[in-house]
Amino acid sequence: MALLPIIIAPDPRLKQIAAPVARVDDQVRQLMDDLLETMYQAPGIGLAAPQVGVLKRVIVVDASAKDEERAPLCMANPELIEVSDEDAHYEEGCLSLPEHYAEVVRPIRIRVRYLDHENEIRELDAEELLATCIQHEMDHLEGILFVDHLSALKRNMILRKLTKAKKADKTPDKIPTGAPVAAE
Ligand code: GNR
Ligand code: NI
Q1: How many angstroms separate the first and last alpha carbons of the chain?
Q2: Ligand nearest to the CA of 35
Q3: pTM
Q4: Ligand 2 (ion): which residues have CB within 5 A?
């Protein structure tokens, strides 16, 4: 198991389309396990492989409440096979857009087909927060972020703030002189 660094927007790697996996082999299983560990540590309720720089169609989600047992889901090559006409509005966040939140509208119920951790084809009906989270993760596989569902005004406001934050972090005088950068 390993914690993986999460890519923060704006970054061209978050805008790429991810490639399907041929099957869930040991390497993909390891990726799923690392994504789950990274997601729980963040903490977040979902994580997609492109967010850690791996352009494969692999996502993990766990929308269980804090006081509930963990309910991890690992999905490779997820496909929406049904979506409801009815919509849900959720305040979304994204580990690649830290500290920014906005309401996004998506179908409230979905049916998703995917390959699970054991390479078995599965179908799952999801609703409310879990359905929202799965759709948010599937968007990452298409290079789409939740801000792409907002008006250009709101999107650019968030992206400009993130650009500024990145530039501020890179300023050399923010690094204490003589202090070595912590090694892994
Ligand atoms: O942790 C997360 N919370 C969240 C809340 C509402 C809708 C979607 C999400 S997913 C997000 C983690 C993340 O960035 N996944 O890609
Ligand atoms: Ni996200």
Answers
A1: 14
A2: 1
A3: 0.93
A4: 94
The residue annotated as part of the active site, out of 99, 137, 142, 184, is: 137
**Domain architecture of the chain: domains with CATH:** 6-175 (3.90.45.10)
Tokens of 66: 């804090």
Mapped onto helix, strand or coil, the DSSP state of residue 125 is: strand
Q: Which two tokens stand for residue 94?
A: 């994204």
- What pLDDT digit, counting tens, does each position of 11-21 carry? 999 999 999 99
The residue written with tokens 């994204």 in the block is 94
Note the pLDDT tens digit of each residue in 39-94. 999 999 999 999 999 999 999 999 999 999 999 999 999 999 999 999 999 999 99
Cα 160 to ligand 2 centre (Å): 18
Q: Which residue has the tokens 């530039």?
A: 167
